[in-house]
Amino acid sequence: MGAQTSMIIATLSDSCKSERTGERRYFIGGSDARTIMGNDEAALIRLWREKRGEMEPEDLSGNLVVQLGLATEDLNRRWYQANTGQVVTDMQKRVRHPVLRWMAATLDGRVEVTGTVFEAKFVFGRRATEKYMPQLQHNMWVVAARNAVLSVITGGGKWVEITTHADPLYQHLIVTAERKFWRCVESGEPPRLFGVEPPKPRIEAVRIVDMSASNSWAEFAGLFRSTRQAFLDHERSKTELKALMPDDAKEAIGHSVRVKRSKSGAVSFDLLETEGRHAAL
Predict the structure, then answer these.
(1) Is residue 203 very low, low, confident or very high in pLDDT (cuts 50, 70, 90)?
(2) ∠70-73-76 over CA atoms, to 5°?
(3) Dmax (CA) of the chain
(4) Once rounded to an integer, what is the mean pLDDT over residues 253-260?
(5) Higher per-residue confidence, 69 vs 125
(6) Is the pLDDT assigned to residue 232 strictly greater than 90?
């Protein structure tokens, strides 16, 4: 009885997955955004043909990384919740953009309290944020979220949490590229690569790094030490010169230094080659 139940559940699951895969023909999702904003022309043409119904979606059942991502998605979410104290809801919820009906997002989840888009990934190597930035920005645009969190389990057995923010300029470029792609789907004209680099993520500084082995660091650290006192004296001299300048003066000159006060009150300093021409002032 248990084996039969398992078979029925597996059959229903496969049926649902097949149905959802078929539905993907009729909209552009977050994973599609990665292809549309990427630099792989062959992948772009394949996606275009899939959306037009000219070929079946790629069979990823033999792709180990993809299957590891699917297998660890539940673990990833539970690990994120346990380590952050946050609750993730709306797992695998599909949301259509309220205006652009060809645009949708299938969410790994949303953080309940903040509405932050949650994305779970299994990756080897680095640059996960750059790789998934189009997908994150696409999904944030669809659901009007201001933030997204990338919960990453690495091939090295580590867990990393990366938070990124909505980038209006990049989102505009995504929508423009996807609109052009969808027109190609409707017209039958092959699409072209859009060619836009994703924005660099703002990464929280959390590490203490020893730079003792860097020769360049040693060179500039020595320069910093040797010029430190001169810099402090320089800053002090500007403060004192500014204080000595009469309140009603717009310019003060002496000893090869000129101090100027703008209409807004900002003070600037210049070095003069000679002060002979100012002797009569």
Answers:
(1) low
(2) 150
(3) 109
(4) 94
(5) 69
(6) yes
Inter-residue contact 162 to 150 (CB < 8 Å):
yes
181 and 236 co-located in one domain: no
Range of the domain at 70: 26-187
CATH of the domain at 172: 3.90.320.10
Closest residue by Cα to residue 185 from 58, 53, 51:
51
Whether residue 16 contacts residue 7, with contact meaning beta carbons closer than 8 Å, is answered with no
User: What is the share, in percent, of the chain residues with pLDDT greater than 70?
Assistant: 86
Rounded average pLDDT over 40-64: 91
Rounded to 5 degrees, φ, ψ at 261 are: -115, 125
Domain count, the chain: 2
Instruction: With H, G, I as helix, E, B as strand and everything else as coil, classify residue 276.
Output: helix
Q: What is the token pair recorded at 264? A: 């807004």
53: region left, alpha or beta (phi > 0 left; psi from -120 to 50 alpha): left
Residue 118: beta bridge partners? Answer: 109, 149
111 and 88 Cβ atoms separated by less than 8 Å: yes
Helices (H), the chain: 2-23, 30-36, 41-51, 64-84, 128-143, 168-187, 215-244
- Give, for 194, the enclosing helix (H) or strand (E): none
Within 8 A by CB and 6+ apart from 219, the residues are none
How many residues in the chain?
A: 281
Say yes or no: 183 and 239 in one domain. no
User: Are 166 and 267 in a shared domain?
Assistant: no
Measuring CA to CA, which residue among 21, 174, 197 is closest to residue 103?
174
Mean pLDDT value of segment 181-200: 89
The whole-angstrom separation of Cα 55 and Cα 256 is 78
**72: pLDDT strictly greater than 60:** yes
Distance of alpha carbon 158 from its chain centroid, rounded? 21
